[in-house]
Amino acid sequence: MTRRLPYILVVLLTLGACSNMQIEDFAGTGPELKPEEYFAGQTKAWGIFEDRFGNLKREFLVDIKGDWDGTTLTLTEDFDYSDGEKEQRIWHITKSGDGLYEGRADDVVGVAKGVARGKALNWSYDLMLKVGDNTIKVRFDDWMFLQPGGVMINKAEVSKFGITIGTVTLFFAKDAVNRTGSFGGRKSAA
After folding, report:
1. Exposed site from 27, 49, 148, 177, fewest CB < 10 Å?
2. What are the pLDDT digits (tens) for 8-56?
3. Number of domains in the chain
């Protein structure tokens, strides 16, 4: 039995990491998500990061400026974290086919791949994530869902070596760009 225990643990971890959700399940749903249209102009987002145990570790706001030139969507994301840290990521996203997208950013390893169907976008990539004074390579599996009224919900599983280390949840809104907000000196959750 003790020799089979590692095998059983690997099988359980593999099964636990499998998702039944497929992007094709959303074909024909609405409102239709076209990233080059949704992110053109100003967008605001609110997000949290929870560790694999569901503990809130970080909160952040994101101001996003999107420019679509007919070929490339350039997204400038300015992050404002509850612990006072600020960060900027600039994405260059191109449409590579019907509902297919490729993206690049300085901290993304290789090319991010995305597929949009109906109201959903599945976006996956490897990212060099800053953790304290170190940087580690993690995998993001993002699912974005456009809702009526211009709100979009994004849930991303963050993993390392195939094991989930946390979840990022974001809410995007187009009509909220003039709203200001801050964390009012609150410290981040630990």
Report:
1. 148
2. 444 444 444 455 899 999 999 999 999 999 999 999 999 999 999 999 9
3. 1
